[in-house]
């Protein structure tokens, strides 16, 4: 982003990578797949790089409003200094926080989830999606809570899967009734309370019930939880967990 | 004493309505113990929500079986209450079926006939409801919070409705003048033969008895509401009106924290500045909620509105996987504690006297609070726009910001964010490494 600023230019969109997308080995693959798609569609985009910091989402959900606001205000200062207008992110938690909770603290931007952004590129004819190797495959989509219920985005990811000419199959609980993967509300960073099952195993069982070849996700944390769930059920040889961006990029061997 | 029955009726009516009004006043007082929150924006959307969700039952029918049965009982309840109007007028003026004096027989018959059909449908629906609770034993009615009073309360309401509907039909069946008209006795004509063996005077006594028990039953039921989960029949309307209109993922930003943060970020702020004149003795605002008075009034209204149907709990991922958290219990605990606080205020001449108890720990445990994934399934599933998640978040805020009592792993996560801008211990300078990998 600093380079754009130095040249006196504004990118079309700022890609907010997020902590998972920056540091988590699995999520980094999602980041790279999405970047390939942005390049393919000739989108002039920027990242904040080392100037990006956690949005504060897990702190806020854990109850630490103070830490959340410190993070938010710092990020907003950076974003406003670069005169950022439009943000896209592959993480529904970053998406929700920046879109809904930053405006009250002085940061108002046009924020899109990467599935919405890819759908828009597709509609504008800037990106073409081919089925490629996913043609005819059974794919189910796991709704991330912070994309679905939290922000009512249900169709963009499904539209993209259908463009792959894949067979989109729905789990028992989907869309607004989607079952959580178990990571939200800062659960990602702690052990679960005592119970008789892990939430991600319950959700993975729902997915495996409909015998998909691929479980599609739209959130790096859901991705981790579902991948762990598939491993726990010893099905990793038959069922892959992939982000929508990876599906589209891989279909075209990008 | 020709007016004796009119007078007795009027006294009963005044007592019942008066006692109910007194409790409604108490209810409003208790709800107002909550903190202020502004829900006056976007009125048109609010009216629309009330019309669709409360009046139109749009979220009830998402579960088709219970939704359909509930619509029958709801429509029956609303429409049959027109008959109560006639009963009250008859009772006050000593008339009998005053409707016949003002309406043509066919129109009157149409009304009563409709009421009779509805009464019959309500009766059947209520039987099915009872069986779902007590014979089929649906899981959500048998969770750990549904013992003793909550369990009995649910059944009492169903018995009440069965009895009221039966009395209405018996009253019509034994009213010989009404049966002779043969208009509007759609259902009661089939019940009338059961009483045909009795002399006319006995039928009259039964008819009068059913009439009195029916109206007294309704007045008792009215006053039962305040003590019961059944308050939802009234509060569903304000509750859906004042419900949250923002995206469900948006959690409130705490203004008191914003002030602090902005001061910290302001390079011109004087760290040694004395507090503004007159504010030295102000108690700093408490962060989050440890008791009902720390919640806002909408959250307290939510608690009174909850009818303990358990849809939230049955959708909750934590509850489904055996954790202690039950969103319904969060609402029930909030109401129970609020009632306790209200009684405390009544007993101490309008002032709350510290009772050494609070909502946190004495009602809702930390274990429940930390099990929440903030997925909003409970909020989405509530047919009357209750938001248990907002209460859970407020209580977490108290635990973290007032007590520093977060689980260790979460403390580590927060320390990481503070030190290196990510929930994991990675160096912020490595954020762009993915570019070259």
UniProtKB/TrEMBL annotation, chain B:
<dbReference type="InterPro" id="IPR051460">
    <property type="entry name" value="HdrC_iron-sulfur_subunit"/>
</dbReference>
<feature type="transmembrane region" description="Helical">
    <location>
        <begin position="67"/>
        <end position="88"/>
    </location>
</feature>
<keyword id="KW-0408">Iron</keyword>
<keyword id="KW-0812">Transmembrane</keyword>
<keyword id="KW-0004">4Fe-4S</keyword>
<dbReference type="InterPro" id="IPR017896">
    <property type="entry name" value="4Fe4S_Fe-S-bd"/>
</dbReference>
<dbReference type="Pfam" id="PF13187">
    <property type="entry name" value="Fer4_9"/>
</dbReference>
<dbReference type="InterPro" id="IPR017900">
    <property type="entry name" value="4Fe4S_Fe_S_CS"/>
</dbReference>
<dbReference type="GO" id="GO:0016491">
    <property type="term" value="F:oxidoreductase activity"/>
</dbReference>
<dbReference type="GO" id="GO:0046872">
    <property type="term" value="F:metal ion binding"/>
</dbReference>
<keyword id="KW-0411">Iron-sulfur</keyword>
<keyword id="KW-1133">Transmembrane helix</keyword>
<feature type="transmembrane region" description="Helical">
    <location>
        <begin position="209"/>
        <end position="227"/>
    </location>
</feature>
<keyword id="KW-0472">Membrane</keyword>
<dbReference type="InterPro" id="IPR009051">
    <property type="entry name" value="Helical_ferredxn"/>
</dbReference>
<dbReference type="GO" id="GO:0005886">
    <property type="term" value="C:plasma membrane"/>
</dbReference>
<keyword id="KW-0560">Oxidoreductase</keyword>
<protein>
    <submittedName>
        <fullName>Fe-S oxidoreductase</fullName>
    </submittedName>
</protein>
<keyword id="KW-0479">Metal-binding</keyword>
<feature type="domain" description="4Fe-4S ferredoxin-type">
    <location>
        <begin position="361"/>
        <end position="394"/>
    </location>
</feature>
<dbReference type="GO" id="GO:0051539">
    <property type="term" value="F:4 iron, 4 sulfur cluster binding"/>
</dbReference>
<feature type="transmembrane region" description="Helical">
    <location>
        <begin position="108"/>
        <end position="131"/>
    </location>
</feature>
<feature type="domain" description="4Fe-4S ferredoxin-type">
    <location>
        <begin position="297"/>
        <end position="328"/>
    </location>
</feature>
<feature type="transmembrane region" description="Helical">
    <location>
        <begin position="6"/>
        <end position="24"/>
    </location>
</feature>
<feature type="transmembrane region" description="Helical">
    <location>
        <begin position="156"/>
        <end position="174"/>
    </location>
</feature>
<dbReference type="InterPro" id="IPR036197">
    <property type="entry name" value="NarG-like_sf"/>
</dbReference>
